[in-house]
Specification:
By secondary structure, the protein is α/β, with parallel strands linked by helices. It has 13 helices and 13 strands. Helix 6 (146-156) links the parallel strand 6 and strand 7. Helix 3 (59-72) crosses helix 4 and helix 4 (83-96) crosses helix 5. It is globular, with a radius of gyration of 21 Å.
């Protein structure tokens, strides 16, 4: 049994259910909070992990996970997604002394490795314990870009296997394709509502815009468990006092095609899934440069912003109004050959097979 563990059910829903559907040789169990119908229908088994994701470190949740691991025994493979889930798993496993095979997927280095002063102090304080636990817990760590691999390996002195598997894949046949661009360009930002995702920059650009043919839309939700999340008051202020139309959660597979431009102003990404989705659907993609977004430099209908300048970004958006935008077939070819869920699933499957053989 392959156990997928995440401290937030959405982490599994967004892409891992697609990967599971593409692997026929193993059975899968989801261990996460709030088991929903999508997870229920995608996994062979589910266990509700009672954890409060709004807390940075939920000790009750750690002991609940330890209990789950202990009941499952040692003849399992555990695949943990996100660094935060990995930290919680390391502590839980240390409590149980379980000797299972464990894989960690680092989908982004997150708050712990940010430039925030508190995060820097926290890294110094926990480094010895972190190094001890990471090497003792995981036999394989998967990274989505080379920069994360280099930074994380240096910090942890990780001695076991490190793999680079770009993206978490997308199930391309689930997306409605864009047919043509609107005369009034609809600019969308879709992400968790974090400050370092560039939410405030996006609002600033929208508020400075004077061209009625540019419309700005924001989708995503507050991440109450992240210190960098905006709060409810700031979101209400955006809704009431900005030129941005807030959409809340939207199903990107069914709704992305309604927009024309996907903009990402994030300071850092592991590998931007939403940019990949937008490029597949046919949107024009604009992104700040970081290790998780530089892949779109190989795409048509894309623009990498090396230095974040809101005025220049707005000028570029206005210039696009005078461009003859067309859907790119080249982008679809690149994604089909490199980033489909089946391709990622095949790489995961090989890893699980070697673990079962004890290699």
């Amino acid at each position: 049994m392959i156990n997928y563990i995440a401290h937030w059910d959405w982490i599994l829903v967004r892409s891992r259910t697609s990967v599971v559907k593409n692997i026929k040789t193993f059975q899968f169990r989801a261990i996460c909070p709030n088991i929903n119908p999508v997870i229920q229908n995608s996994f062979d088994d589910t266990i509700n992990w009672e954890i409060d994701k709004t807390k940075i470190l939920d000790f009750k949740g750690i002991f609940n996970l330890a209990s789950i691991i202990k009941k499952n025994g040692e003849q399992n493979i555990y695949h943990i997604f996100t660094l935060k889930s990995g930290i919680l798993f390391m502590i839980s496993k240390f409590i149980t002394k379980n000797k299972s095979k464990n894989i960690l997927s680092v989908t982004g280095l997150g708050y712990l490795f940010s430039k925030n002063l508190k995060a820097k102090i926290l890294r110094v304080l926990i480094k010895p314990i972190f190094i001890f636990l990471i090497n003792k817990t995981f036999h394989t760590i998967i990274f989505q870009n080379k920069s994360d691999l280099r930074i994380f390996s240096k910090f942890t002195n990780f001695k076991n296997k490190s793999l680079l598997i770009e993206s978490s894949g997308i199930e391309t046949n689930e997306y409605i394709q864009k047919k043509t661009f609107n005369s009034e360009l609809k600019v969308l930002m879709s992400s968790r509502l974090l400050i370092d995702k560039g939410i405030r920059d996006f609002v600033d650009i929208a508020n400075k815009n004077e061209n009625k043919k540019l419309k700005f839309f924001l989708s995503g939700e507050i991440d109450y468990g992240n210190p960098k999340s905006i709060n409810h008051h700031e979101l209400q202020n955006i809704i009431n006092n900005s030129s941005v139309e807030y959409l809340g959660y939207i199903d990107l597979r069914k709704e992305l095609h309604n927009y024309d431009i996907l903009i990402s102003l994030s300071d850092y990404e592991g590998f931007s899934r939403v940019l990949l989705e937008a490029a597949w659907v046919g949107l024009f993609c604009i992104s700040t440069l970081n290790p998780g977004t530089e892949f779109i430099s190989n795409f048509e209908n894309s623009k990498i912003i090396e230095n974040k300048d809101n005025n220049l970004i707005l000028l570029y958006l206005n210039n696009l109004l005078n461009s003859n935008l067309k859907i790119s077939n080249k982008n679809k070819k690149i994604i089909s050959e490199n980033y489909k869920s089946a391709i990622i699933a095949n790489q995961f499957s090989k890893l699980y097979y070697l673990d079962k053989k004890g290699k």
